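Structure ticket #2291
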Amino acid sequence: MQTRIGRDHYVRVDTNDYSVHPDAIGRTVTVLTDNDEVIALAPGGVIVARRPRCWARHQTIVSRRDCAACPGPGAASARRCRGRTG
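Resolution: structure written out below.
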């Protein structure tokens, strides 16, 4: 599946949101899934996210590295990722 990365830098697979590195904001990425992981590829095949697949519903799976790289003012960036890191 292909999707454009919005300002919140997440991709949705089933009912779960997976963080993507903020460098991919505004780009179209290809999302690949299997039973074990979710991978997001930027143009040129660059991996911008590789997360373990979560089978629970309505979860948010975040990389601390993605949150640390959030653009914008610190408070707004922290708000987007608060309580979601793992």
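Closing remark: Strands lie at 2-4, 10-13, 16-19, 28-33, 37-41, 47-52, 60-61.
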